[in-house]
Task: inverse folding
């Protein structure tokens, strides 16, 4: 089945994807820290039953995966595919995920909140992603009683997350703003606005693939549509700045050379580490937006970016591989996908 | 240990991350944790746990028997203050008066706006809806849009009626 990330979306030259998450807790069970195994089992049962009763399972083609039945690599792959977060898989006991066939819609069970309803869309598409998450939430709520207070909104274990329980985020590709220092400057200026821009992937402040996450931090006092339109406004400003910086950067012959060589290496290498891959694919993505590369589109870049990640590559191969075998498999897969 | 993001302040928060296919962990100071979206009650207030307890809660010295516990999950207010984590929905009611000042320090005087369970996306609580409709009615009358005004008046009456029925129950 085609995955959501193999599609293209609005403003795809800068915005990789849109993610909407809604955090919910059931009124009649303690929050995660105070839960026993039997509480967890009961919450899982309630949510699965409610999903069945409201026809969500059929409508979204959801399948339930208990975390305890997955291998470590499979769990890490869920994080790489943006379906779970590292905190969630660090304690798999009693947790699970309901996942749609195209992976665009998911519900995490028994994480920091009893439920986290999530919808992903390619490109900048808050409307579509919110509509899916909201529909799922509204259907669930017909058969579940969520913890809610008129003044505080949806009640959560962490008082920072009170309010709408909405977390909206965009993955942005910012190679030019990273290069000229703009990304760090923007990141510092967003905090007072209740938004955050942080580097993707690991600890570094300068991510290898120039991927950044823009998200809202304030959920109390702002409605869903206000929070989303704030984020959309800031995103459009960042997109404009990134495009202007790219136009300037791409004038340099050296930059053009690096971009075109990057595609050459991806096409011909026999061994490819993930670190090297991230830098090369970022250059190729930039090259497509600058019109220097026309033989492949964003959907191929996206597919590679998701499927060449270390754990996901292993899960898809279905084998246990050494580091070198993994690198050689990556190089081979990249060649195959680029040929088609 | 220093914060792995700014390298300046001592690290107090551990955050999980994935590096090259492996689950690993990095350490952040309170400011960076807050800035990067990993904030909790204590980082949100810009306080260390010690000063949070010491500054706000002299009731700590009360004997154990007097300590109020949430009837549903058994948490005391100290448990919540110490962990930064609220035990359950009922805790918000049990400790409402003590939690509200902390919540206001984080969120200001904000009140929830947006989706309400059990209603459509647009539903707001009846009192808010009534006050919005009344001001709309005044505007309609001022602008001599009497047809719209009549329609609003009827809808307001209907809503007020619902409210009264509610009170009688
Ligand atoms: Zn720091
Ligand atoms: Zn409680």
Result:
């Amino acid at each position: 089945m085609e995955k959501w990330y193999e599609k293209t979306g609005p403003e795809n030259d800068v915005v990789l994807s849109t993610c909407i998450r809604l955090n919910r807790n059931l009124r009649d069970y303690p929050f995660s820290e105070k839960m026993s195994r039997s509480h967890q089992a009961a919450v899982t049962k309630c949510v699965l039953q409610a999903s069945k009763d409201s026809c969500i399972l059929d409508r979204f083609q959801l399948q339930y995966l208990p975390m305890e039945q997955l291998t470590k690599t499979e769990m890490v792959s869920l994080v790489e595919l943006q379906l779970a977060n590292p905190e969630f898989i660090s304690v798999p006991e009693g947790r699970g995920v309901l996942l749609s066939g195209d992976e665009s819609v998911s519900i995490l069970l028994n994480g920091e909140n009893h439920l986290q309803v999530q919808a992903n869309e390619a490109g900048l598409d808050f409307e579509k992603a919110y509509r899916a998450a909201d529909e799922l939430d509204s259907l669930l709520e017909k058969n579940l009683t969520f913890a809610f207070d008129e003044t505080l909104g949806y009640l959560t274990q962490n008082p920072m997350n009170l309010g709408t329980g909405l977390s909206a985020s965009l993955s942005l590709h910012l190679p030019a703003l990273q290069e000229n220092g703009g990304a760090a400057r923007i990141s510092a200026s967003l905090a007072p606005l209740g938004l955050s821009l942080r580097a993707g992937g690991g600890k570094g402040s300068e991510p290898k693939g120039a991927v950044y996450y823009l998200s809202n931090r304030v959920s109390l006092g702002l409605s869903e549509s206000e929070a989303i339109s704030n984020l959309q406004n800031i995103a459009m400003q960042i997109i404009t700045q990134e495009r202007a910086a790219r136009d300037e950067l791409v004038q340099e012959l050296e930059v053009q050379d690096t971009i075109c060589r990057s595609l050459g290496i991806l096409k011909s290498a026999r061994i490819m580490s993930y670190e090297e891959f991230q830098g090369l694919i970022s250059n190729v993505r930039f090259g497509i937006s600058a019109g220097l590369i026309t033989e492949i589109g964003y959907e191929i870049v996206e597919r590679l970016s998701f499927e060449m990640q270390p754990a996901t590559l292993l899960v898809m191969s279905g084998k246990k591989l050494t580091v070198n075998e993994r690198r050689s498999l990556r190089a081979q897969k990249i060649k195959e996908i680029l040929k088609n | 240990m220093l914060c792995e993001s700014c390298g300046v302040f001592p690290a107090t928060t551990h955050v999980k991350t994935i590096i090259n296919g492996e689950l690993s962990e990095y350490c952040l100071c309170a400011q960076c944790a807050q800035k990067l979206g990993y904030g909790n009650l204590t980082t949100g207030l810009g306080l260390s746990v010690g000063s949070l307890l010491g500054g706000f809660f002299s009731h700590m010295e009360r004997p154990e028997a007097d300590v109020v516990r949430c009837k549903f999950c058994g948490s005391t207010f100290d448990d919540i203050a110490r962990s930064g984590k609220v035990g359950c929905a009922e805790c918000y009611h049990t400790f409402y008066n003590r939690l509200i000042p902390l919540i206001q320090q984080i969120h200001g005087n904000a009140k929830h706006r947006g989706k309400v369970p059990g209603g459509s996306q647009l539903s707001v609580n009846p009192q808010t809806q009534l006050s919005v409709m009344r001001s709309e009615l005044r505007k309609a009358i001022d602008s001599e849009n009497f047809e719209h005004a009549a329609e609003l008046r009827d809808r307001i009456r209907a809503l007020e009626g619902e409210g009264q029925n509610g009170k009688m129950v």
In short: Chain A has two domains: 4-246, 253-339. The first helix of chain A runs from residue 37 to 53. The pocket of zinc ion (ligand 2) is lined by residues B 70, 72-73, 75, 87-88, 90-91 (CB under 6 Å). DSSP finds 13 helices and ten strands in chain A.
